[in-house]
Amino acid sequence: MPVLAGMVIGSMVGAGVFSLPSSFAGSAGGLGALLAWGVAGGGMLMLALVFQRLAIRRPDLDSGIVAYAKAGFGPYVGFFSAFGYWAAACIANVTYWVLIASTLGAVVPAFGDGSTWAAFALGTVGLWAFHLVVARGVTQAAALNAITAVAKFVPLLLFVVLLIFGGFSWDTFTGNLAGDDALGGLGDQVRATMLVTVFVFLGVEGASVYSRYARRREDVGRATVTGFLTVLALFVAVTMLSFGVLPRAELAALDQPSAAGVLEAAVGPWGAWLIGIGLLISVLGAYLAWTLLATEVLHEAALQDDAPRLLRRTNGRGVPIAALTATSLVTWLFLVLTQLSENAFDFSLELTSALAIIPYLLTAGFGVRAALSRDHRAPAAIVVAAIALAYTFFLVYAMGPAYALLALIIYAPATLLYAWARREQGLRVFSRREAVLCALSVAGAVAAVVALATGAVSL
């Protein structure tokens, strides 16, 4: 179980936690932030419990988040879930290189805010270096991730302790509680922070993706909930303590990683260095975890005949090398796109969240179906799954139409991979319902392209 819990913690504690102070302060006051964490924490806990129950009740379904959508809603929807989750992982990895470069930019100006060509070169070299590490063996890479999951907590715990005993001001905190009129009401503030919370919680399903490697299915559920609660406490502490260090407007204006600016204001310049070192350890560990997760998802989709057979290929060490290469290549292509964005980090963060919401929604939906089935019916499980489903629907609403359309640009063309896999098996590509879904996704993608071309939506 420790390695599985390490996957959950390692996946969630990455770039996002270091960006929380300014990301929240730009959209909410202290009270709105606390309410947002209540909504996000409660909703994601219900989703984590759904993952836990499904891992125990449906041990026949390996790779969790991929298999659940297929079992509940058919092969095409299952493919949508797998591809969306995989694409989200690839884009999440891009945010890590952007944040690494922006952190190093304090020492090497050529890296700037993480979107310069020097930053792109750094990301390219680092990306393919990690590709070689993972290609040497999944077991060794997973063990390394567990080590970095522990190492990254040291600077973050120091951040919390130093603010509690040194930098926190109750007067500053109470002055930040209400925010200001420009932020809107509490409901607006909560909605505006939801994509940020989705991003930092990505990875809660990490243990379920690797469920086929677990010795006992109970370990998968325990690792998911243990990892989630540990990380939730850390996220809330980092966010709320920051509101007691600087006025909200100053927090919102901090460069990323904003946690460095907060600690620098509290204890001096060495605080920024501490966060910078912690960020590098944390982000590199998270990058490794997400590369492993993305590779496993794509490989498992091929094993389940939902993706082309060539993605089943493994190397002499048993690593799914075809899926790993596809993951690294697509991540690099998204890294290229950051050169076209006005704010590379925020764009990557929000698009990652938008892509991940659909797999979470489908998992919650399958959780409701499984809880209502005759074999596994339980009132408590029905309530938990229903809350998780309601929460994921709220995330779709919070995402807004712009990112929904951008996500479809990525989702729709992927249907070609699904059609390729179905043709390989000599199977009919779509049922009637699936054909309608395909048509809607393509129409949405076309609308998104038009919106980009006319400037209605921008990167």
TrEMBL record:
What does the record list as coiled-coil region(s)? none
Q: Name one GO cellular component term.
A: plasma membrane
Could you tell me which Gene3D superfamilies the record lists for this protein?
A: Amino acid/polyamine transporter I
UniProt lists the family membership as follows: Belongs to the amino acid-polyamine-organocation (APC) superfamily. Basic amino acid/polyamine antiporter (APA) (TC 2.A.3.2) family.
Spell out where the chain crosses the membrane: 35-56, 76-97, 117-138, 150-170, 190-211, 223-246, 270-298, 319-340, 352-372, 379-397, 403-421, 433-457
Q: Which GO terms describe its biological process?
A: amino acid transport
Report the protein name in the record: Basic amino acid/polyamine antiporter
Quote the subcellular location field of this record. Answer: Cell membrane
| UniProt xrefs under InterPro entries | AA/rel_permease1, Amino_acid_antiprt, APC_superfamily
How does this protein sit in the membrane?
Answer: Multi-pass membrane protein
Keywords noted in UniProt: Amino-acid transport, Cell membrane, Membrane, Transmembrane, Transmembrane helix, Transport
Q: Which domain of life is it from?
A: Bacteria
UniProt GO MF annotations: transmembrane transporter activity
Query: Where is it chiefly localized?
Result: membrane
